[in-house]
Design goal:
This protein has about 80 residues and is of the alpha+beta class. Helix content is about 35%, strand content about 30%.
Length: about 80
């Protein structure tokens, strides 16, 4: 089973990397980009067969290590 985790900054948290990318896009001629937010994507290959148990384990991984839950949100998708 594969777990796909999308981690993004919470609303209101400044994103200097996103702002720098937005400015660079504008300088390259890509007008109309109103905001850029940079996040992370993590894929885990799991040996679990029970999807509920796997999701609970991945949630614990996110809470303890993979995401900074003070400033980041995360979304978990399981793929068989």
């Amino acid at each position: 089973m594969k777990a796909k985790i999308h981690i993004t900054l919470k609303n209101g948290v400044l994103d200097p990397q996103g702002k720098a990318s937005q400015n660079a896009l504008e300088h390259l001629g890509f007008d109309g980009v109103e905001e850029v937010r940079i996040g992370k994507f993590i894929e885990l290959e799991l040996g679990d067969t029970d999807s509920e148990q796997a999701k609970a384990r991945v949630k614990d991984m996110c809470e303890q290590l993979l995401a900074n839950t003070v400033i980041e949100n995360y979304d978990i998708e399981l793929v068989a």
